[in-house]
Amino acid sequence: MGYFLTMAKQKNTSANSESVKSVIARSDDGTIQITFTIPYLKIEKAKNETLEELAKEIEIPGFRKGKAPYEQIANRISQQSILEKTLGRILPDLLSDAITEYKLTPAVYPKFELVKAKEGEDWQIRAITCEIPEFDLGDYKQSLATLALGKKEIIGVGKAGVIWTPGKDKSEKKVGDLSRSQKEQKVIETLVASIKVPTPKILIDQETDARLSNLLSRLEKLGLTLESYLASIGKTAESIRKEYETQAVGSIGLELILNKIAEKEKVQVDEGEITKTLEAASADPKLREKLDTPEQKRLIKNILIRRHVLDSLISLM
């Protein structure tokens, strides 16, 4: 995946941190890399502020609380924790300034990589995120209408995966004869096959990692190890990840397509429908409480919008 620099090669991220430099690079799939060069003095200042904050909570024999030397405090805390808290004081503002500076619309919160962190030298930190890439929906309605004109299809019947083929029986099925779930599957297959979506790698990696995490969680509940599970199904860790990556590309692509159609067709969901969905979970108070947050409501809204889009497309068949 090739990257190309955009805008100025180096920019100050804000008037408040003029000595911090950043370089931005973009790839064709929407992935964005922002590399920050941070003066060591700024790192050292943030580290001392972190230790000062931690000192308020740490008691060291021979010193009053909050008065111990930083060296003593640092010896009581893991270096990883100090590093994370130090960068936590710097990175949010740098990222916010860069988003404004480069006029970005990140689709996900960045993943940060420590490129260079030598004592006494400027540090380099890379933020990796992405924007939703532009793509053409084409005449997706026409594609679905063509599918619905009575073209004979080879379809799966039932969960057992029985395949119907012309000539095997006399009840030839057309698209219009399919069940709703089969129509939905046909709509999805047609959209994914006919609309090409460049999928940012960071989205693929996040979705793949989430699927693997869910798998590990399920195996743990069953008292199984990943090694024993893979051996039982004749797969390797590499092959299962590749399989999940393929699934991730399809699911992300479909979500982006449905979102773009929703935007084009101005599909909306009102608060009443979101509330109704929440009420459906009211039988489980813990689940209701978990869902009743602004972030979860936005997630529910997006899911409902995509469901409306699918319903509308199914009606074309």
Describe the structure.
This protein is of the alpha+beta class. It has three domains: 3-130, Alpha-Beta Plaits (2-Layer Sandwich), CATH 3.30.70.1050; 140-194, no CATH class; 267-317. 52% of the residues lie in helices and 12% in strands. The protein contains eleven helices and eight strands. The chain has helices at residues 40-55, 70-76, 79-101, 140-147, 180-194, 201-221, 226-233, 237-265, 271-279, 285-291, 294-314, and strands spanning 3-5, 11-12, 21-27, 31-38, 111-116, 123-130, 156-157, 162-163. The strands form two sheets. Strands 1, 2, 3, 4, 5 and 6 form a six-stranded antiparallel β-sheet that branches. Strand 5 (111-116) and strand 6 (123-130) form a beta hairpin. The model is unreliable at 7-11, 13-17 and 152-172 (pLDDT under 50).
